[in-house]
Amino acid sequence: MTEIAQALVPIIVLLYLVLVVAVGYYATRHTGATREEYFVASRTFGTVVLFFAIFATHMTAVALIGGPSMGHELGVGGYGIIAIPQVFLFALALMTIGVRVWKAGKRYGHITPSQVLNHRLNSRYLGLLLMGLLTFWTVPYVLVGLQGSGVVFEGLTDGAIPYWAGSLIIAVVVGLYVTAGGMRGTGWTNAFQGAVFMAFLVIVGILVPLRLGGPTAATEAVIEQSATHVNRAEVPLFEPRMWVSVGLLIPVASVMFPHLYIRFMTGRSTVQLKNTAMLYPIAAVIVWIPAVLIGFWSLGHLGPLDDPDFALPMMMVELFPLWVAGIVLAAVLAAIMSSLDGQVLALSTLFTQDVVEEFADVSEKTEVLLGRVFVVLILAAAWIAAQITTETVVDVFLFASAGYALIFFPAVAPLYWKGINSYGVYAGLIFGFVGLWVYELGWIPEALTMGLHVFLPLMVVQVAIVVVVSLATPSDSADVAEDYDELYNGNML
To answer: Per the CB 3.0–4.6 Å rule, which of 37, 50, 124, 440 could disulfide with 45?
Structure first.
């Protein structure tokens, strides 16, 4: 019976992966050869597909692997660090910033953040800097997906499929349906995969505490291991200033994730974005509460783990029949792939639209072909890097998020402030990137952060630099600024 159960695990996963590829390839029947079709699905997503295209791609391994990891290391307070601000602030960003991005994309044909910035500030090369920064920070975020894939494959197959092979399998599968279906392929597969991993978390969120003798017994077992997990006074991350700044970091950074920013433009109208903003908080609660609680209870059941990223897969193996590991693995991979596909497509979009489209005279057919080739190249490079890195999923995520967060103000302010100019944005983007690395290299004393996450004091200085430089230098886009002001004050849906 054990041998049969062991054999069922790869069979279940294989069937699931085949189904995902089939959904992606089915989308190719509706995918045309134009750049608008391949990169933004001709801006035709309805509420359901747009919601999952944004929500599912936002969750990634950070929720399914990082959430339990934080619960195991930090206790249930891990929910409050990421999920609470994410639930409210990111939904607010969809209703405000997202709507302005959609309007600019629809009116002027923009596809990438760089195209919005270049047009709004009447610049040709500013977008190249933005594209380079977004690419730089997205590559480690892609690593999160491949890391998570390797972790769950190895954990749930008891090492039969090692880390390197598991991450390679997912890189190949994602490459197949992204190159074939583009944005429509990822949107449709995200709807399917998002429903899978949300249903999984609801079910295991109910079954896990029952297997442990009930929530009370499971929590008491954690307290026996570490009282700190219910009394957060000794955990530095929960110090009020750090908690607040990390809570701001996640939603601010999320706006500048290129795989989300580009998807702001894919709905039929702003109505779909507003509907997504209303659904988002409900879905975030459904995902994050069971994810963190499972990790929290894993401390009491498994004891301290050397690598907390294995908390979820090890709990599933310990508490359920072996064949269930196949379902668990499929569900976790659903969350991982629904983000990974958006990230690699976004990187491909940045390259083809901000470099090829801007500086080379090629046909739309060639642009799409180059976009597909770039998807393959970025997945190959990310897989190699994922075999080298020793950081946890959460470590990689928080570092990359700080980089995105320091792009936020220079990239978003032009959508609101007519007085900003390209000189101010150049200065802000360069300062944010250099400042973060100066801190990471230890050249800024820890005391200067005043107990905050470093991104926040850097961002305060960055805002001042953008404002001062913009006011001290001549405007280079007054006419375009008026056009955008008219666009945002009009009644365009």
So the answer is: 50
Rounded to whole angstroms, how far apart are CA atoms 301 and 417? 53
Query: Given 3-state DSSP classes, what are the helix, strand and coil percentages for the chain, each rounded to the nearest 5?
Result: 85, 0, 15
**Number of Cβ within a 10 Å radius of residue 269:** 15
What's the predicted TM-score (pTM) here? 0.89
C-alpha distance from residue 40 to each of 44, 102, 434, 446 (Å)? 8, 11, 32, 42
- DSSP codes, 23-60: HHHHHGGG--SSHHHHHHGGG-B-HHHHHHHHHHHHHH
| First CA to last CA distance, the chain | 59
CB 81, CB 232: distance < 8 Å: no
Q: Which residues contact 114 (CB under 8 A, 6 or more apart)?
A: 126, 127, 128, 130, 131, 134, 350, 353, 354
Say whether domain 2-390 belongs to CATH 1.20.1730.10: yes
pLDDT tens per residue, range 316-355: 888 888 777 788 778 878 878 888 899 999 999 999 999 9
E strands within 329-416?
Answer: none
CA–CA distance, 391 with 250 (Å, rounded to integer): 19
- pLDDT tens for 216-237 read 998 888 888 877 666 665 666 6
